[in-house]
Amino acid sequence: MPVIAPWPAVRVTAEREGTEGAAAAGTTVDHLTETYRAHYRSLLGLAALLLDDTASCEDVVQEAFIRVHSARKRVRDPEKTLAYLRQTVVNLSRSALRRRILGLKLLSKPMPNMASAEEGAYDQLERDQLIQAMKGLQRRQREVLVLRYFSDMTEAQVAETLGISVGSVKAYGSRGLAALRIAMGATA
Prior knowledge:
The chain has 188 residues and is an all-alpha fold.
């Protein structure tokens, strides 16, 4: 059997490599370096017309060259490299403006009312004092107050949960609150 199959495959591969080599010849790193030297200032001017910040213009142009360098295999015609760069500068400038507008919108919203660090520390101290005062209550008083005020149960629900009468819930609650006022007033 003659070995004919590999030759056409090798020929097709060589033809493809030759085609890709010719197409990629204009998009080499050397070509991009020359384009950078020749057109950096004009691209910077283009960005300056779209943006008002010099640093942002420089960033946009640098990013455009980086993106073209990354995609240089897709830019087959060396004459289109500059057009591709210009379009990239325009697109990146638009994106920068969108980010600025979004930032301005976010900054224009009023800040939520947040407690300062001192207020947070005082709140923590008050919580700690309340917990200590609750520990000093009788067991039934503590149970009634926790169920009534922290679990938001009605007096009837508390009575049913604890298996006591509604009158007892009222009495334990009243005595517990009085004891808390005294304990919290003494520590404050």
